[in-house]
Every structure is written in C-alpha cells, then in structure tokens.
Amino acid sequence: xxxxxxxxxxxxxxxxxxxxxxxxxxxxxxxxxxxxxxxxxxxxxxxxxxxxxxxxxxxxxxxxxxxxxxxxxxxxxxxxxx
Length: 82
Prior knowledge:
Shape: flat
Structural class: alpha+beta
Distance between the termini: 46 Å
Number of domains: 1
Strand content: 5-15%
C-alpha cells in the first residue's frame, strides 16, 4: 500500500485514444479532485464528472448522478448515431 502513493500513469494519459469519462468524488482521499481533474485534462477529449459528497466509491454512493452521466456519455460520445 505504501508504494501506491508513488505510482503514477500521468505520462501515459495523453496516449489514450478512446472516449473517457473521469469521475471525481468530492471527498475522495485515494484520488483527490485535483488529480481527477488533472487526469481529465491529460486525456484527449476526456470529460470530467464531479460528484458532490462522493468518495472513491462515488458510483455506489451516488448511483443516480453517476449512472445518468454515464448513460449520457455513452449516448453522446460512444454509441453509434442512428
């Protein structure tokens, strides 16, 4: 666990070539908001979702907010237009 604080993949994020939605929880101690925002800035064409009151498990804590955002993201950015 101690080595996790030293692990970083930030240099790989600019190479991501698929749509990405970065979810950041307001009280996430593992991946703080500033880091989630930075990740979304480094991934080309990524979107950032801020989850008020959410922690690292924001999708479980605020499923309505996260699920709605994921559905919209998939509909607008991933699924083929008909």
